[in-house]
Amino acid sequence: MCYCKCFPCYRSFGYKHVLQNHERTHTGEKPFECPECHKRFTRDHHLKTHMRLHTGERPYRCDHCDRQFVQVANLRRHLRVHTGERPYNCEHCNAKFSDSNQLKAHILIHTNEKPFSCDR
């Protein structure tokens, strides 16, 4: 263990490799490249997860309906379909959502933003 500090932002880290990973957020370096499509990543585990798109591996399975997912975060979000959990609340009204993207789309109703334009 070491006391490592990032000088652009002064965050501290207990391990040098964690600092090195963090420093890539400042440098933009992406040393891990997909051999299939050449997309690049800042972390090796991001490449490993990405590779599942090419191999078709879906290691995370829903016990309720047998759907399978590439990432555990996608499985967790999907499980809300079965549990009915709606952790994302609108601060303007009583609406609740199971997905943060649903909430973001809903908030546009209150802010009157129209992010998409129609040519017709």
From TrEMBL:
Instruction: Give a yes or no for keyword Transcription in this entry.
Output: yes
Q: What would you give as a GO molecular function for this chain, any one?
A: DNA-binding transcription factor activity, RNA polymerase II-specific
Question: Where does the source fall among the domains of life?
Answer: Eukaryota
Please state where this protein is localized: Nucleus
- Which Pfam families does this chain map to? zf-C2H2, zf-C2H2_jaz, zf-H2C2_2
This entry carries the following GO cellular component terms, namely: nucleus
The UniProt entry, under InterPro entries, shows: Znf_C2H2_jaz, Znf_C2H2_sf, Znf_C2H2_type
- Provide the C2H2-type domain boundaries: 4-31, 32-59, 60-87, 88-115
Q: Which UniProt keywords apply?
A: DNA-binding, Metal-binding, Nucleus, Repeat, Transcription, Transcription regulation, Zinc, Zinc-finger
Recorded hits in SMART domains, A to Z, give: ZnF_C2H2
Q: What is this protein called?
A: C2H2-type domain-containing protein
